[in-house]
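Structure first, sequence second, as always.
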């Protein structure tokens, strides 16, 4: 006879399901409702209503859409202020409006995943890259064919990099 799910029969099941849908840590939920983390995992994987998960995803998508709409509205307002400032030859206000519009456009790019905050690191230009190349080629010294193949591949990486950043 199959085991009865202790979460399905728990008096606080709706709250537990909500906590799971909100992706709270299993250990925290287990402690709060005095259940085992393994029972939570099984319940999550086998019994958590798919509709609840989809509803949470839909809520998150709606919130993201609302945020996007607010940023678009701010951008449009900043451009409207820019237009008025230019009409009245108010360069100070125009500059401030440009700065605000640029900030909104940048934020929209980040929200759309088209802009990244992370810095780009060019490892090909780092001295450590040269040291690594030398170490690899030195280790392959007894294996002439493999050394030649690796050297050729390294040159191809560098030429591809140079072509892409020329």
């Amino acid at each position: 006879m199959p085991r009865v799910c202790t979460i399905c029969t728990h008096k606080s099941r709706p709250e537990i399901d909500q906590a799971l849908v909100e992706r709270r840590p299993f250990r925290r939920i287990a402690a709060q409702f005095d259940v085992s983390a393994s029972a939570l995992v099984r319940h999550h994987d086998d019994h958590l209503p798919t509709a609840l998960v989809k509803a949470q995803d839909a809520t998150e998508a709606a919130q993201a859409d609302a945020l996007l709409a607010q940023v678009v509205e701010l951008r449009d307002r900043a451009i409207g202020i820019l237009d008025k400032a230019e009409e009245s030859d108010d360069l100070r206000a125009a500059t401030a409006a440009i700065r605000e519009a640029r900030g909104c456009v940048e934020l929209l790019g980040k929200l759309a995943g088209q802009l990244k905050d992370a810095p780009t690191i060019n490892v090909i230009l780092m001295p450590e890259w040269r040291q690594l190349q030398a170490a690899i080629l030195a280790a392959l010294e007894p294996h002439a064919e493999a050394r030649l193949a690796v050297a050729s591949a390294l040159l191809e990486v560098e030429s591809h990099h140079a072509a892409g950043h020329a």
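Margin note: The chain has a mean pLDDT of 84.
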